[in-house]
């Protein structure tokens, strides 16, 4: 007979906290089904309403990590990774993984798909013909060892407690709990057997957490729990008051990541380098800028794409392989960009078919927004706000109106810094 989870739920409900034994009981029960959906929802609501202290967050994170397989690596260098809480035009992972690999670390990156207004790394990579995100464990290990990096979907054996609790949180209106967000993010990442982890917590109009207090609170919770679970860690609160890249949409963002890998400049490059150096610094390495400028990161990316089933010459001929939308319309405006409702841009991409509202929705990789102006730049007849890439004229016209409404034209404050603050275990 399985242990009864009700005393654990009651302890959290009554503010008496969560210890390691209670967290292990809940995580095992989520994974093997002995904790019912009703009990899981009650646990999630208790955590949302009462909160967990630092010890409780560590206990839940470790228990959910250990609810399935925890990978162990035998590599001639450290295993490191980066996680972002999600935003618009955030294609850092596609640049960072090969940069860090080119500097002597190994990046076993387990990523997710987009849901709601934010895009997913796996969806972007699947715009490449033949690219396989669902590698078995043996193939995943082989690509990481041979190339230095691989970007894959989480298999059912990694943190199964989180997979179940994640769905229940959505149904029970408990998604917003910082404690549950922390355990969810870290249980999957730490199950990858990492030596070090950098966390990118987005803040602003395109982030899930808009307010500065919420972003900083999540960053501190993530750092405390990861450190408590034995992983070297840093977190950065970064700007999402405007798209990071000038594109939003899967193939369009992939083109921009390739441009950065082959010499392009801009905010995407700047943040990718900063977070790459942070990953490397945690394990005593450096050289991100040199790896990018010298073409070594581009070479690693090309090898990773080929090893995961994509074309070997993608970087040389991206337009040969990446799909293009049949309709492209400019987004006219006149004046200085004062502010951007970045979440609205994400919803515009979803409405075009480039994102999903439900887990099973199909994605059109061709569609999205490109050449978007940033805060402080001037729109004119010769320089529109950007361009809509769509499957039909009607969809394109609707997206033009949405983007125009999302941009505030006029006087406004200068854009904030790309990195707003850093959080370490010593803070």
Characterize the structure shown.
With 427 residues, this protein is of the alpha/beta class. 45% of the residues lie in helices and 14% in strands. The chain is built from 17 helices and 12 strands. It has helices spanning 6-13, 20-32, 37-50, 54-65, 92-102, 121-125, 137-147, 160-171, 178-190, 212-228, 250-261, 267-282, 288-293, 296-307, 318-321, 342-352, 393-406, and strands at residues 80-84, 107-111, 149-153, 196-203, 232-239, 327-330, 335-340, 368-370, 378-379, 387-390, 407-409, 419-423. The strands form 4 sheets. The chain has a 4-stranded mixed β-sheet, with helices on both faces. It has a 3-stranded antiparallel β-sheet with strand order 6-10-8, with helices on both faces. Strand 4 (196-203), helix 10 (212-228) and strand 5 (232-239) form a beta-alpha-beta unit. It is globular, with a radius of gyration of 21 Å. The model has no long low-confidence stretch (mean pLDDT 95).
């Amino acid at each position: 007979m399985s242990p009864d989870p009700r005393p654990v739920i009651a302890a959290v409900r009554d503010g008496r906290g969560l210890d390691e034994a209670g967290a292990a009981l809940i995580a095992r029960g989520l994974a093997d089904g002995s904790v019912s959906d009703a009990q899981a929802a009650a646990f999630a609501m208790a955590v949302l309403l009462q909160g967990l202290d630092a010890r409780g967050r560590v206990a839940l994170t470790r228990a959910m990590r250990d609810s399935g397989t925890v990978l162990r690596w035998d590599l001639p260098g450290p295993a490191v990774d980066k996680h972002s809480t999600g935003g618009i035009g955030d294609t850092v992972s596609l640049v960072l993984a090969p940069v860090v690999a080119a500097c002597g670390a190994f990046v076993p990156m387990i990523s997710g798909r987009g849901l709601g207004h934010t895009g997913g790394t796996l969806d972007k990579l699947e715009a490449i013909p033949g690219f396989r995100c669902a590698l078995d464990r043996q193939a995943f290990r082989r690509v990481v060892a041979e190339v230095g990096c691989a970007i894959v979907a989480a298999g059912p054996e990694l943190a199964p407690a989180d997979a179940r609790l994640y769905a229940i949180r959505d149904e029970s209106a408990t998604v917003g709990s910082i404690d549950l967000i922390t355990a969810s993010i870290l249980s999957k990442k730490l199950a990858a057997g990492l030596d070090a982890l950098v966390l990118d917590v987005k803040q602003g109009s395109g982030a899930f957490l808009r307010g500065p207090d919420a972003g900083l609170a999540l960053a501190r919770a993530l750092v405390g729990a990861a450190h408590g679970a034995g992983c070297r860690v840093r977190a950065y609160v970064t700007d999402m008051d405007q798209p990071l890249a000038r594109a939003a949409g899967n193939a369009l963002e992939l083109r921009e990541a390739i441009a950065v890998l082959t010499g392009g400049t801009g905010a995407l490059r700047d943040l990718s380098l900063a977070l790459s150096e942070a990953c490397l610094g945690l394990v005593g390495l450096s050289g991100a800028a040199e790896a990018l400028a010298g073409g070594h990161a581009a070479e690693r990316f090309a090898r990773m794409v080929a090893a995961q089933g994509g074309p070997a010459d993608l970087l040389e001929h991206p337009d040969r392989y990446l799909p293009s939308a049949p309709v492209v319309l400019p987004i006219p405006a006149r004046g200085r960009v004062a502010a951007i409702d970045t979440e609205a841009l994400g919803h515009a991409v979803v409405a075009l078919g480039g994102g999903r509202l439900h887990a099973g929705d199909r994605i059109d990789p061709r569609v999205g927004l490109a050449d978007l102006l940033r805060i402080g730049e001037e729109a004119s007849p010769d320089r529109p706000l950007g361009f809509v890439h769509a499957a039909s004229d009607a969809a394109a016209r609707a997206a033009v109106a949405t983007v125009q409404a999302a941009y505030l034209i006029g006087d406004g404050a200068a854009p904030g810094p790309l990195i707003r603050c850093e959080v370490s275990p010593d803070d």
